[in-house]
Amino acid sequence: MPTFSLLTLNCFGVPSPSTKTRLLTLCRELDALRADVVCLQEVQAHPYRRLLARAATGYPHCAYEPFVHAPKGGLFTLSRYPIIESRFVLYRERGLWYTPALADWILHKGALITRLQIDQLPVVVFNTHLTANYTGHWGRHNLFARHEWEQLQQLAELVNEQPANALVLVAGDFNIPRGSWLSDEFLKLTGLIDPLAGDHRPTFRLHTGMPARYAAAIDFGLLRVPSALQMTINSGRCLDHKYRLLNGQEGFLSDHDAIELRLSWTDREGDISQP
Known about the structure:
This protein has about 280 residues and is of the alpha+beta class. The chain has helices at about 20-35, 45-55, 100-105, 145-160, 180-190; strands at about 5-15, 35-45, 60-65, 75-80, 85-90, 110-120, 120-130, 165-175, 220-225, 230-240, 245, 250, 260-265. The longest helix is centred in the middle third of the chain and has 18 residues, at about 145-160. Mean pLDDT is about 95; it is low at about 270-275.
């Protein structure tokens, strides 16, 4: 029975004295978990991108969009399988430069789309990181929520363009709470499945002094299954506790938990590799 696994993590790859050690330890854990594809967000400097590509030895293939100081959008995808094609799509709505969203605007947030083939099955992986909501409120009239909704609608357009015979996975830090109107309407637009629907445990770990309302389930691993497949889906969080870091200290690998998808399937209608 064919299988496929994906892990997504906002790796908090911002320049700081501890980042190199955290990311090297993360690579050790990624090699142990042996996911087939890893979608990383917030890789905010090329030295960290090179470190991840070098140290995650179990992933010989990678995709990113070159940019001035970092991968565009901070997005970096690692794969055990050869990558057939990758492209980056910039979000049309990137927030306002004169608000706290300036950092998102500079990073040029968007979606990194990677194409693979697993046992004759076309697989399309979206790695994305939406604009942050700096108010911690996601009502329909909130400025940041409206910007996020514009990005989600564009992302839905891209998802709906994918061939019907492809397994489509959409993963990343959405910066919107699971079960909000934003996530619910995005799922309706795309027909994507959220295997963790109803699990509202926060995936973001609050920094000191942050209000409790920012703790939310904002990381997603979604999928659309071709009708020709009978799919078994297992999903959960991982990399969610403290680890022994390479410097001997204990600490979290990121301020986010990772989301993992593990899939297996049978083909109900013959060769699904043909459109």
